[in-house]
Amino acid sequence: MSARLRLRVVMIDMKISPISNEISSHQDAAVSENAVRVPAHGHNPAAAAHQQKEEIGICEPWPRSALSRSLAGSLMLSIHNGVRGLGGIVTAPASKPHTQRALVTGALTRSGTSTVTNAAWSRETTLLLAGLNQFGATSTIDGDRASITVDPDAASASPVREVDVAGSAFTLRVLGVLAAVSGGTTHFRATRGMMNRPVAKHLGVLTHQLGAVLSTYGNDSEYVVSIKGRGRRCDQQATHVVDTVDSSQLVTALMLSAPFISEELRVRAATRRVVGAPYIALTREMLGALGASTGLAHSAQHGWEWSAVIEPGGYPASEYRIATDFTSITYFAVVAAAGEVGQHKVVIKNYTPSGLESEDLFFRAIAKLGIGTTYDPAESTLQIRRVGYPAEPVVIDGSDVPTAVTSLAAIAAYSRGAVTAVNCGHVNNHKTRRVELIVRTLARMGFDIREVRDHRDVVTGFHTEPLDGPPRGGIVIDDDGDHRVLLPAMAAAVGASNPVAFSDLHSLIDSFPEFIEQLEALGAVVDRPKTQS
């Protein structure tokens, strides 16, 4: 941890063997078949983030068209297609979860150079890399490749770090654990919306277990989480207990920092419920490829427990090639859902399966809703098209597809059948109250969709009924700062009778900056505002 990490960014291909959902069959929330103080000190977070990016050479590294560059400001456009269904050839970005884990393990190597090719560059991965820079890394980017070099003889990282995480809970959780086991103090500056999420609450419990001290400060414009690290390895006998009801990311955060925590890391779920289990499996798979020995156990007494044995001091230098982002594929599935049976198909080129069980679970769910997928490994393509409609009511489970729930809502709304989604409540603890927001957005667009609430009146899912014709559209949708709501809403707009307008598309840069161009490639008509001379 005292070594200065020198990151040179270049791009390389990550192929992970299929990752099974190791624990979903044991979840206690089964699907019912009948289920209808740190002051800001005058700091300017935006300027600091820009300075960090300049230092490591990653200012706007993703491919950006003139339209994409305008997304940082206010922009109004409308989407319509004029025919029933779209089709064509498109490209999806690389996998963000694979990229995030590759960047972290690459920056935590013992020595040597790691390369990450076909990385998913977006605002969130850029902020993650800038945050790693604050722990002693220096970086440059060449196209879609990141080269990360660790020099164990270089100077140590600054004892006081300021990291901009914006709205990325993954960056805060992962770098928060790293800060807890590092020396010095780290100030994480987040958007004010982070204050309304349980991220800092659960992270505070964990950092206390690690011997660190966490404090928070918030005002009308920002939210600051400060962590004073312990700077040494922890008790080797300790078992770290984390919340897994809202997210699996704290388990991943601990496992990624395992070389700096203890010789044998042990993690236990605080409750029997674990959401996003496939993402923990992804972390274990990637660490296994780096020589770590990881384990998973379940007992009636302790519930779910994970372990990791990794050589102290960091990971070996490695090469990664990143697969296709499965969540981005879900937006194209929404476009296909708006089409007629057998009339149109969406073809995703240069497709590499992510290996995530969540991807397979998503494909199985949309198959129930009449959406077919065909993978051609020889051509590296994935075809998505409507092949039918459900003949009877359908129930889908959102436990292990957290990033796809909002897309499933839009696909279900086009299914011409009764569809109920359950076990989706954890999705409301993300950047926004996602389930509630996507339901309101689709209902305004003209779909017959409503929230599903449990006995405590808590939103746990959604329910759709068939429409008599296409949704009416004809509304204006604001960007509420959540790309996981904005993107499926844009995809759903292509089937509306009247154009749907979108204002201020800033959150697109969080994951899929080029989505508008991809919609146009499928035949959607996008009306842009005229530029003033």
Automatic annotation (TrEMBL):
SUPFAM superfamilies: EPT/RTPC-like. The keyword Transferase applies. GO terms for molecular function: 3-phosphoshikimate 1-carboxyvinyltransferase activity. One of its GO terms (biological process) is chorismate biosynthetic process. Signal peptide: none annotated. It holds the Pfam family EPSP_synthase. InterPro entries: Enolpyruvate_Tfrase_dom, Enolpyruvate_Tfrase_sf, RNA3'P_cycl/enolpyr_Trfase_a/b. Residues 85-519 form the Enolpyruvate transferase domain. Gene3D superfamilies: Enolpyruvate transferase domain (3.65.10.10). Keywords: Transferase. This is Enolpyruvate transferase domain-containing protein. It comes from Amycolatopsis alba DSM 44262. The lineage of its organism: Bacteria, Bacillati, Actinomycetota, Actinomycetes, Pseudonocardiales.
